[in-house]
User: Fold ATP-grasp domain-containing protein from Limnobacter profundi.
Amino acid sequence: MFTKILIANRGEIARRINRTAQAMGIQTVAVYSTADAQALHVQECNEAVCLGEPEAAQSYLNIDKVIAAARQTGAQAIHPGYGFLSENAAFAQACAEAHITFIGPGVEAIRIMGSKSEAKACVQPAGVPLIPGYFGADQSLATLQAEAERIGFPLMIKAVAGGGGKGIRIVSNAGDLQAALESCQREAKNAFGDATVMLEKQIIQPRHVEVQVFADTHGNVVHLFERDCSAQRRHQKVIEEAPAFGLTEQQREAFGRTAVQVAKAVNYVGAGTVEFLLDARGEFYFMEMNTRLQVEHPVTEMITGFDLVQWQIEIAAGLPLPATQETIHIDGHAFEARLYAENPEQGFLPAIGTVELWEAPDAIEFRTGTHAGRTAGIRLDSSMRSGLAVSPYYDPMVGKLITWAPTRDAALKKLADALAQLRCVGVKNNLAWLRGLCLHPEFAAGGYDTGLIDRMSTATDTPNPIDPDTVHAMAGLARWALHQHTQGQRTADPMAQLDGFYSSAPPLREDRWSNRDTALATHTHVLVSGQQATIQCSGTSLIATLTGQGNQSGLARIQGSINTGPHAGSTFDLIWHGDNLSIHVGAEQVNLQWQNPAHIRADQGHDAHGVAAPMPGKVFAVLVKVGDTVKKGQPLIGLEAMKMEHTLNSPCDGVVQAIPHPVGDQVTEGTELIHFSEDDTAK
Assistant:
């Protein structure tokens, strides 16, 4: 067995690998970029080596630097995690040449399965069912257009070296093909260094089902059943579950048998995931094989009781598989939700910034192994703590919340409840949106397809889950707490303070807010005596008991319980960050932005006169020119950020007056990219 391994990754997966390795008595080496100097994986591993600058190409993707770090520290093996170098055949080869064990499959298996087209050609002789498509080497426009006509529309363009939802486009008709090809090839080149694409017939309303396989160096191959990953947006998985809902035992056996055949076709060793599409008729088709540990591996650990990272390490050390197919069984049901720093209300654009508050009171981190999830049934694999920053250089996932229960309904309820208890303040995030997905009737029923999220109501169409009068009252109470904070009016007992606004019965105080795209005005008066708060709100009154108040790192917070009204008996948690207010009542959440009079600009409230970058990135396309008349919603400019392409649309009708930044420019958040003529802008 190894005595020291290097973990060639960052974030939650680096922490996850470290936890198992150290439990096995193995010393660990972390690597990091200068942007991750304070990261938790750096602190928790036994040693750490800085690879270089924040850009992945200068650090986590630099093969020479990673190999040098392993040699420097005496690491006998390297675990690549997922992403970065995990499916890079050149890296696996470099490890072999350096006499360092690569904890993963052989070079040839990575090379074959790393190309979606070559993978299909490899497994076809084994009778594995394939989706009709074109997987050839000729990448000329004429050939791709001809093959697209042969396959028929709608079809999918996929980067052959793709992964993580990148390098995929859906094309509905021939007229859209060329533009989609160029965009897909450009994104594939930027993300994977390879612009080669393939074409596939789009399966209508498919489910995405994948099977976890393991193989050792002694010829043994097993599967650990399937996961349903159909809850996707932009081809990126959002919530995964195991086992897949509604499969017959015959289907489950066929999935497992086929996945094992795929692994055997390339003499596979280690952990791998074979991905399929399941159509409405019950037929399934091979898509690809991921030659690494998957982000969603915890749900398989939860239902089987095995530590898959331990399996990986043992197999790489030459040990046989610790279980046979006959001894692997499904126990209960598990869900995993991916926690992202992103803004669901703006097309899930990635968000950056400092997480001022990260709190998970009832989640237990890294419950792996035989007893996985059997106690609390909640697991949180995260890379975050209060005070850490979300960087623009890497994927914006900050953690994964995993739940287990004996039944699917119980596991899903546990997931929704746990999401309500998490607190992530300081950056936009998808926690409330994920909970909404859990409660969506089609998702809750199971058997949903990959189009579910596209069919869901947008965030701006979803009504507030908290009674409006209660929202108003909580906003008023939060303003009182903020006033105490900003005025420095603290005593030994902060609950024993009178209303910070008035000392006697006053007219109601007015505050203005924005709630998503909606303006909101509240009229409240707060009177606090001891631990009891009475909030008068537009003719109604609400009484609450205050249980805590605190101020830290720029946050003002007040907690308690509601005694009257439609949410009587519910707890509340009100958290300020700048002018942003998070209102948590029971399991529900509403986010408001206070229109602070000191911060309101003179131009607010008027029509937009430009388009600004919503995040740092690089301009990759300008779709209009100076003098063009544009319509509201028309695509104007393309911005690449966090390895994904984002198209920015016009917020109004207008005439383009200036385009300050051409293709290739790097821009910061808030930089104006398009300026409209104010005289000609349609009102």
Remarks:
- Residues 207-461 form a domain with the D-amino Acid Aminotransferase; Chain A, domain 1 fold (CATH 3.30.470.20).
